[in-house]
């Protein structure tokens, strides 16, 4: 629904240890957003978000997420699509926007345009799949095609009919001329079909409970004999039915955007903080439950909530500027379970440091045993990348020996923990750090406390 924005994808850990993927779009149509490096640090340390999606390929943001391990999806703006059907232009684009950042920045997917079919622009629509193909060819020639996927997101405007779900079809004309070649491309390249279902744009007073996952009589599909208890399932199954009719039921579905605003104009019903929190929380619970939908039982869907921030420069209704989960000072407008427990009340960027209980005793942060080397290397890169003094663990430094990732990581993590004010969350590091009262210093290598 929007063009110049940035998105974020999150992984939630469930109690059972299973993980489902949830995304939050990180829009940048605002003049009051924190700098990207601060957002990267905030997402990494105060939330469970560990993937992001950009609506463009903003180099400052890509740079800010380097060495964080955060998985990033970038977007080619709509107006660049026709030009990218040319292979040498596509190769140049990959070189400029991907290869300058990859693999330091973990780019996993390129979305070509945004809701291109809904624009009604025939040039864009006609060149969409050819541009995706030439970008893919460019990835192949750079040997990146196994690491980076290519797709394009759609609004539900691609459906000509969606009620009941089993009767859904793609709009006539687009079905065979655009969507069939697109789905073929996605199948061949093992990439997902990305859709933006918005119950917010589909509900009425009568269907509010259905849209919000509240208890309601449901929608019975006479053809499939399946009962729908919420609009999200119904929308996804409509997409699935339309794909199935073209013979592509096996292509994975990703939810590129979904959300509910927390503030609207006076004539908008159920646009408030409580409803936004309820809707988004229910979306997260739904996709994490692993239940799938009536036509796609037990399937999970990588899902991107819209949006990370409120965006004050958007035009249109008040609600357009109020889809955010966070204010520009990084405080939550509401919590849908994405904050780390220690981050719920304290935000390390904004709140004055409170004295830490027992801080008179010395404490150090060290690596948790069993932590993965790749995660520990990321901790080193992160801390040293912030400009803290990593001299002691570089060659010739007093803590260089033993020259292992684990030892160097412990030094770096402790350095961060001490510098940031010794909050428990300063030693979390994605669950790879732990606080100890035993001084890890040895020989001439001193760990500060
Ligand atoms: C593609 O773009 C390059 C560089 O602008 C140009 O030289 C070439 O002729 C174009 N190829 C086609 C097939 O249009
Ligand atoms: C979905 O999971 C349930 C519970 O584990 C199982 O009984 C059912 O057969 C599964 N359905 C499909 C289609 O895999």
UniProtKB/TrEMBL annotation:
Its main location: membrane. InterPro entries: GH, Glyco_hydro_17, Glyco_hydro_17_plant, X8. PROSITE patterns: GLYCOSYL_HYDROL_F17. It comes from the Eukaryota. One of its GO terms (biological process) is defense response. It catalyses: Hydrolysis of (1->3)-beta-D-glucosidic linkages in (1->3)-beta-D-glucans. One of its GO terms (cellular component) is side of membrane. The keyword Glycoprotein applies. Belongs to the glycosyl hydrolase 17 family. This is glucan endo-1,3-beta-D-glucosidase.
């Amino acid at each position: 629904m929007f063009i110049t924005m940035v998105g974020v994808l999150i992984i939630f850990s469930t109690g059972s240890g299973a993980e489902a993927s949830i995304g939050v779009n990180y829009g940048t149509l605002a003049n009051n957003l924190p700098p990207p490096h601060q957002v990267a640090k905030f997402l990494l340390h105060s939330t469970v978000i560990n993937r992001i999606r950009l609506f463009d390929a903003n180099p400052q943001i890509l740079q800010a997420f380097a060495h964080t391990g955060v998985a990033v999806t970038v977007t080619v703006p709509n107006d660049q699509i026709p030009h990218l059907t040319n292979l040498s232009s596509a190769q140049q684009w990959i070189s400029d926007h991907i290869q300058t950042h990859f693999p330091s920045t973990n780019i996993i997917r390129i979305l070509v345009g945004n809701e291109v079919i809904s624009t009604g622009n025939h040039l864009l629509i006609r060149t969409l799949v050819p541009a995706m193909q030439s970008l893919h060819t460019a990835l192949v020639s750079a040997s990146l095609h196994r690491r980076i996927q290519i797709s394009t997101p759609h609004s539900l405007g691609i459906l000509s009919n969606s009620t009941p779900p089993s009767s859904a079809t793609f709009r006539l004309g687009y079905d065979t001329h655009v969507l069939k070649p697109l789905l073929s491309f996605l199948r061949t390249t093992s990439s997902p079909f990305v859709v933006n279902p918005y119950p917010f744009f589909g509900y009425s007073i009568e269907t509010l409970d259905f849209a919000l996952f509240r208890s309601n009589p449901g929608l019975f599909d006479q053809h499939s004999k399946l009962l729908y208890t919420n609009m999200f399932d119904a929308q996804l199954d409509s997409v699935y039915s339309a794909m199935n009719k073209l013979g592509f039921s096996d292509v994975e579905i990703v939810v590129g955007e979904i959300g509910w605003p927390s503030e609207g104009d006076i004539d908008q019903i159920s646009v408030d903080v409580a409803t936004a929190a309820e809707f988004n929380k229910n979306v997260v619970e739904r996709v994490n439950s692993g239940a799938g939908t009536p036509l796609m039982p037990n399937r999970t869907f990588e899902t991107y909530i819209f949006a990370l921030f409120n965006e004050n420069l958007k035009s249109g209704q008040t609600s357009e500027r109020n889809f955010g989960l966070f204010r520009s000072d990084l405080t939550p407008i509401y919590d849908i379970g994405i904050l780390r427990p220690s981050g719920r009340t304290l935000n390390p960027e904004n709140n004055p440091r409170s004295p830490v209980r027992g801080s008179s005793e010395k404490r150090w942060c060290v690596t948790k045993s069993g932590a993965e080397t790749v995660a520990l290397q990321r901790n080193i890169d992160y801390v040293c990348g912030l400009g803290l003094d990593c001299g002691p663990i570089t060659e010739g430094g007093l803590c260089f020996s033993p020259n292992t990732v684990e030892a160097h990581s412990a030094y770096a993590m402790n350095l961060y923990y001490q510098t940031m004010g010794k909050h428990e969350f300063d030693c979390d590091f994605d669950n790879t750090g732990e606080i100890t009262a035993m001084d890890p210093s040895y020989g001439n290598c001193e760990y500060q406390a």
